[in-house]
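Usage

Read records sequentially. Each one opens with the input sequence:
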Amino acid sequence: MTFPAVNIAKILRSTAFVILCALVVATFAASPKTATKPATKPAPGTYNLDFSKYDFIDTTLNIIQFPRGNASFEAFFQKMDTLVFENKGQVRILHIGGSHLQADVISGRIREHLIKEYPGASAGRGFIFPYSAARTNTPATYASYYQGIWDKNKNVQKEITKPLGLLGIAVSTRDPRAEITLLLDKYNSEPMWGETRFRLFGFSDNNDVVPVLRIDSTDIQGVHDTISQSYVFTSPRPIDSIHIQFRWIDTLQQATVAKFIADSLIQDSIMRATLDSLQKDSSLKNANADSANSVKKDVPQNVALPLDSMFQGECDVLDTACLTKDELASKDTTAKDSALAQIPDSTLKNARPHFTLTGIIAETDNPGITYTNVGINGAKVHDYFEEVCPLFEKEMEYYKPDLVIFAIGINDANVEHFDDKQFRDDYDKLIARIKKVSPNTAFIFETNNDSFRKVRKKRFVQHPNGEIARKSFFMLAEKHSAGVWDKFSIMGGLGSMAKWEKADLAKNDKVHFKMAGYQLLGDMFYKALIQAYQEHIANLPAVEPKNAEPVSK
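and closes with the structure output:
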């Protein structure tokens, strides 16, 4: 008996499809209460979702919608195919937004699914930044620490003194003690990252200071790329802890200034200890003021204690109100109170070296996925424009995402009168910037979450702008042949944020989510993205193998 030629490629695709379907079904199964004894231990990163207690969520809408078809996703899907079927190549994803993305909980959840589950391969962590040096919250997925005095510039500030890049944030220092540390696996129960190459975007005003990567007490010098204003470091082994020091070309001057600061801090500590001792002595209550003044007279005017201790923050990473207060409290204090700012001219031969850092890419040469989150608390679409972030395209040139997920819009629409046409025009400009350096990039628009507008203390009203913004996102998707993940409708539509808050998924500011809410949204987006890819696999055309021979029996 003779059978038609076997389509090996189709079989492989079908097998991968079945495996993928089984994975997603297992990942998003109902409550484990209905399950029998598990055959094996669940794979790392899998999560069971029980939507029975969230009946206000419309799971039937949890798909990526393509108003004009998914033809523009062909390049992205093909790169996924190469990675999945051949274990070759790298796929790069960029998720960009505001405070939802700076916290990196929803995006962190999606990243974890992709890296641990499907396709289960990492090509590096992507863009990272020492947010603590800017006195703002570091993404929840890694830790950042710093030493020395740093100034910050963010794309949401009224006055910006440094050019910003893809991340919309920069930190600058003149401090000879300046260091930054990033711990990528700080909060992971098991290691996820082993990076071998780092590109640090930054520049020295007068080419008189360079960054140095420290590994095991060894200095790793970077290769300076003047065109991209970056330094490329290669690690001798995979690492998940990044420690950068900043070396002045004039090492003697750096040592001299560092010693001056150290001596100043010692003198200041003595002064403070003396003042405390005087204040605790009840017998000298009436003399406290005079004694304090007497001590102060003996201390040089250029001595003060800088606010430069290692800072991870006192606020919960999702507590936006606390973060705002903390940032306002620290505003201008480093420049005003720093001993560094009051160093006498005689101590320096030349102007103090100055270095500005705008971002770091952590990556490997391995096949896999790199998933970068970009977000600044309070950011709007126009905050990523040329006049605000002039280095945006230059830095994206070295990332070139295959897929961009847009989640900017909650701050644009959180106003009494929302100009939806201007909103769409702004997105057109931002998309043009991305296409300029990455013309084959696919786009997914994430509609705004439902939210309430605060009209007075503890008084909130439903915010209809969420529905208006939703319509704009669909119009943008049709214009740019993009996909849409309709978060607004999936949540339950207008007023649904109150139900999410009642279910302990959202914060009482009625704009942001709690950890569980962000994680749930991340799980759902991952499922929708993988489902879109499943459909691509299922629709792949059958390709007859060359020189196929009939199979006889």
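Summary fields computed downstream for this record:
- The first strand starts at residue 2 and ends at 3.
- The chain has 15 helices and 22 strands.
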